[in-house]
Amino acid sequence: MVLIGAIGLFLLVQAIPSLALDNANFLFSREWSTGDVTNMRYGILDLFLVTVVSAAFALLIAMPVALGIALFLTQYAPRRLARPFAYVIDLLAAVPSIIFGLWGLFVLGPVLTPLGEWLISSLGFIPLFAKGNVSIALGGTIFTAGIVLAVMILPIITAVSREVFDRTPGPHIEGAIALGATKWEVVRTTVLPFGKAGYVSASMLGLGRALGETIALTIILSATGSSFGWSLFDGGATFASKIALAAPEFNDPKSAGAYIAAGLVLFVLTFVVNAAARTIVAGHKEYE
User: From its record, what is one biological process in GO terms (predicted)?
Assistant: First the structure.
């Protein structure tokens, strides 16, 4: 707690002088110009939207996949298959972020191009699938980044969900079987109700991981001078990737303070998400 408080205090102290020099609305402006410290104009709205949309898209993909894997490993797969398969899923967490970034940009991006073109032509009337502000052929879109993030957070959600489902009381399962329930009915009436809070909490932890991802998204997302237009095929920058790309500007404390202010918002956002995960689990003695 002291360490977290110290980090938050450091970010706040470093950010305040630069916030005082900001000539734009920090929370609602889409501008980002910190080169001239006498006329800095910057806001986090675009960074916030790109960060949240890419993380939410990743979570939307990862949650059902993780649920299916966790249920398969705990309820359907034989033990001799479940153990090595679980190790393979867990090993995804050991892959460095830079490898995911390179894979997403040079391998996954080109593969997804035909799918992206079809979505734009068929569902382009929906803002989420409208033509973006970067070339889809380059793969540097939120669509690609979200899928890569989904793969990265999959081990977290799967591992926690698997542990929760494994703790389903045996008498509950045996009672359902004794009443003639099928395997799916056992899962639906005993395993899922018991593990729901843990599964949601695991998903929130995965969301926190996605919000703070840096290197992979720095590699994948294409920079653009246009504002975020609510399309998955837009480029842009998240809080973390914007800060990583701006390292050469950190030699000036006033300019660096603008990025520290953005980092403070990301710190608060991830803290709130992880606190929400803890709150969901709190009160469920079976998870303690």
Answer: phosphate ion transport
